[in-house]
From TrEMBL:
Gene3D superfamilies: 2.30.30.140. This is PWWP domain-containing protein. Pfam families: PWWP. SUPFAM superfamilies: Tudor/PWWP/MBT. It comes from the Eukaryota. InterPro entries: PWWP_dom, ZCWPW1/ZCWPW2.
Length: 58
């Protein structure tokens, strides 16, 4: 947790964010193989969170 990364969501440009635990479950990773996703906090206004496939994380 706390790793700074760039993430890409469909319809949006690459955006800076931080890997963080999901507030309700504490998970920061879910899925397996090609469907593995990280929970991130996007540095936008207002701040948002989401699960992003690892192939869209840099």
């Amino acid at each position: 947790a706390g790793t700074l990364v760039w993430a890409k969501m469909e319809g949006y440009p690459w955006w800076p964010c931080m890997v963080v635990p999901q507030p309700l479950t504490g998970q920061q990773m879910r899925g397996r193989g090609r469907d593995q996703r990280l929970h991130v906090h996007f540095f936008d206004e207002p701040p948002t969170r989401g699960w992003v496939n690892t192939k869209y994380i840099r």
